[in-house]
Amino acid sequence: MRNLDALFTPRAVAILGASNDETKYGNWISVQALRMSRPVYLVNRRGEPVLGQPTYRTMAEIQKPVDCVVITVPANGFEAAVDDALAAGATAIVGITSGFAELGEEGRATQIAVADKIRAAGAVLLGPNCLGVLDATSDLFLVSNPLPHGPIGLVSQSGNMALELSKFLADRGLGFSRFASLGNQADLGAADLIRAYAHHPGTEVIAAYCEDFQDGRDFVAAAGEAVAAGKPVVLLTVGSSTASNRAARSHTGALTSDSAVIDAACRAAGVDRVRSPREMADLVAALHRHGSRPARRVAVIADGGGHASTASDIADANGLYVNEFRNSLQAALKDDLPPSAGVANPVDLAGAGEQDITSFARTIDRVLADPDIDSVLVTGYFGGYGDYGPELAAREIATATVIAEHVHRHGKPLALHTMCSDSIAADELRRNGIGVFRVVDDAARTLGMLADHADRRPHTRPLPPPADPVTGNGYWDARELLKAGGLSFPAARLTTDVVEAANEIGYPVVLKAMGLLHKSDAGGVAIGLSNEDKLRAAHKDMVTRLDVTEYCVEAMADTTDGVELIVGVRRDPRFGPVLMVGLGGVFAEILKDVTFALAPVTPAEAETMLRALKAAPLLHGARGRRPVDLAATAHAVAAIAEVAAAHPEIAELEVNPLLATPGGCLGLDARIVQR
């Protein structure tokens, strides 16, 4: 963990490039910095007063200790400004200046050189091409815009995304404990900041917007440490579309990873991934209110049948269980509500709001008290009854207070959707820490995200020590490598005399031509050869068509009740070896029924991946078939992942098919692609 005290709690700071020009960052950041109680030195090469304050032409003129320097000068003066700051003893530099890696290779080279110089001096660099840094707990405001204060630590590679999130959080009564704009991550990366936030007492929840994870394994490790320390990590990233990848490269010079790989990394670290700044604000606020409490089993309460049914469908679509209430709960609700009310779940108050607004609070109290209920989704008109007159308005506001008391007493999440979200009663709920939503989809999705969060368990594993490199990349090389790693294959011979090999193994056999990447597509595989004549005929045909001299003769596996899987590991440039498991055979690329995880994995984790496949019923014995040996299959998958993870020289390692049967698991084909 790097020491970032000079960045977040400096004794004194300097703004290099301070300006009176209200169109420049040097002005905006100076305005914010002058709010601080610590010494602030404004540096301007002309030496003219800035914002009514005296300035210095260089850092050397200050002649007092300065821990942190914010540099806002143009790119052609950035390196000289860094030299000036380091010579004056600064140990943290915030690079607002743009014009480096985001412009191409020349800019990247300059960026690397400057970052190397800063690290060699024992200092840290945030940015360049960033918005600044803030620590509300230490009275540090080195950003271009005023930001709301609160318990959320934000790491963002985009300045504008941070500004938008700040507005969403302010609407929810929240703000930032710390904010660091990553920019191009020439030195400090997301992992460094997440580690610092995990140990920061003022931060309760960590939010991160990242386009480039750099060392993805370090990001996963840092996020996993934060989650284990009780600081949830919520991630917004890009990569699900070609356009977003293109935009990220032009924005920060980032190299994004495939969205499925990022999902796998999030599962490993226990990170919650969201799709938009608004969704991030909703989840961050919910985690701040409720932490890791369960939310899966939800009670839906509405004051109309349409809202009740619609909300139930939306809740189900977000992974929530709208289970029927136990008989005793239904009876209690029925005794209290009008005869036409629905009480089975969803609850339809059936006009009780107009007649007795307090029925909302009593119903919520009853369902929250039930041990079969994890959370509550309220939907409809609550908050709008005050429009019917001052007396009902007063009762509605009082009921809102009582609802909040019930929620806090039971300690279970409640999300309230109302078509009157700007009402006084709705504001009363917000003031008392209740999530109020203008759209029922957002309310249900937030509870669904809370439920997913509560189910997550970080399970990161370190990479194994590198093994001796593999030199060959043919089928036989892959087969022998995997056999040594614990994967079983049918008996086989690598030979030029296919008949002799078959006689040793025993018929039926499979004949495979060596030296072909996709043997099946090229007609280089013949199966079920039951005697010598059939073997000779298949061999002659391959010799004629493929010009291959070396063959693998392999015992024909018993495929009765077997399921063909594909297991592959490819090396992502950011996250390293990534395991893929799916339905295999010749149609694997068409069906695309796959799951992903960071390699290596335990057999238990491999079994979870297998159970997550859409084709999982085939493994359990669908349509009268015998179930496969799932434990043996999971051990085989874990063995493949372990082998690939131990060989950094391998770009791709694939077993297709991996035959799972009631009696065990066999690899039937494999290939290696070297880096």
UniProtKB/TrEMBL annotation:
PROSITE patterns: ATP_GRASP. GO terms for molecular function: ligase activity. It holds the Pfam family CoA_binding_2. InterPro entries: ATP-grasp, ATP_grasp_subdomain_1, CoA-bd, Ligase_CoA_dom, NAD(P)-bd_dom_sf, Succ_CoA_lig_flav_dom, Succinyl-CoA_synth-like. Residues 479-674 form the ATP-grasp domain. Keywords: ATP-binding, Ligase, Nucleotide-binding. This is Acetate--CoA ligase family protein. It comes from Kutzneria chonburiensis.
